[in-house]
Amino acid sequence: MNKGILFVLGTAVISGFAIFTSKILVASIDPIVYTTLKNLFVAGVLTAILIANKSLRNQWKQLSRRDWWNLIAIGAIGGGIPFALFFTGLKLTSATDATLIHKTLFIWVALFAIPVLHERLRLIQMAGYVLVLWGVLWTSGYRFAGDTGELYIALATILWALENILAKKAVSHIPGIIVAWGRMTVGVGILAILLVIMGKAPLMADLHTNMLMPFLAASILLTGYVVTYYSSLKYIPVTVASAVLILATPITALLEYGILNKAISFSQWQSYGLLAIGLLCITGFFLHVHRHRQPVSTGQ
């Protein structure tokens, strides 16, 4: 199977676990403080990896001024303010609803990628997009209410879509892990400044001992998320990668069912069936067309 598809499948699994874990943690700590601490941990881990790996370290040192500006833009648009918006919104709405809104990311990505990156969607893939969107927003019974939490998450999702476009361009000549490092490092700097402005910096000490293990788990999941996702973008179109992330939705729901005893309705099972069929249309066509070709980095 295409290496990029394997990477992004891993990202989807990680995402499903990460949102469930984050929902539990943001109930007991300020969401912006939480995401700043978590992103700081991830930035530190990625920095250590870059320093320890000679090949990555050399490529890191050879980044051009333009590359640095691209990393700063990715960090600002994708690693800073959207995190604050998302985790604040997550505290105001359910984990499943937050996941559903966030998973409309593939629609926003396509709207930007088609004119900017010149990626193309074939007819069968468009049908897949319709099925996935149907599964996310209709059969699930979800309706966008427009409350504060949902608006925060929607705005964060649009910013992340823009970041996807910038990242897709960047990974054509910069290793995915370096792009991930730029996103997290610049982003955590912005979040730290935001905390100071809001007077929440002292709350950084609010991470109690009993929260340490869940926090480390969430941080490790985020590290895996950014590394696998940015790595996938080197091999597959961003329109495909962002669509596969929708698999996180049923994973989060299953976790809520198994751990929190939150029931999964028949309509939700129908929704997940549509998601599966839609994703088969999107990814199956891509794999069929590119089976005997080299991995691509700019389009289909």
Give the SSE map.
Layout: H1 3-25, H2 31-52, H3 54-61, H4 65-92, H5 95-102, H6 105-116, H7 123-137, H8 148-170, H9 176-197, H10 212-232, H11 238-244, H12 248-260, H13 266-289
Helix pairs in contact: 1-5, 1-10, 1-12, 2-3, 2-4, 2-9, 2-10, 4-8, 4-9, 5-8, 5-12, 6-8, 6-11, 7-13, 9-10
How would you characterize this protein structure?
With 300 residues, the chain is mainly α. The protein has one domain (3-289). Helices cover 75% and strands 0% of the residues. It is built from 13 helices and no strands. The chain has helices at 3-25, 31-52, 54-61, 65-92, 95-102, 105-116, 123-137, 148-170, 176-197, 212-232, 238-244, 248-260, 266-289. The chain is globular. The two termini are 16 Å apart. The model is unreliable at 295-300 (pLDDT under 50). It holds the Pfam family EamA. It is a multi-pass membrane protein. Keywords: Cell membrane, Membrane, Transmembrane, Transmembrane helix.
What keyword list fits this structure?
300 residues, mainly alpha, globular, disordered C terminus
Question: How many domain regions?
Answer: 1
Helix content bin? over 70%
Query: Which structural class is indicated by helix and strand composition?
Result: mainly alpha
Poorly predicted regions: 295-300
Order of helices and strands: HHHHHHHHHHHHH
Overall pLDDT confidence: 84
Q: How many β-strands, per DSSP?
A: 0
> Tell me, what's the shape?
globular
Give the biggest beta sheet.
Answer: none
The proportion of residues in beta strands is under 5%
Our count of helices gives: 13
Distance between the first and last residues' Cα: 16 Å
Q: What is the CA-based Rg, rounded?
A: 19 Å
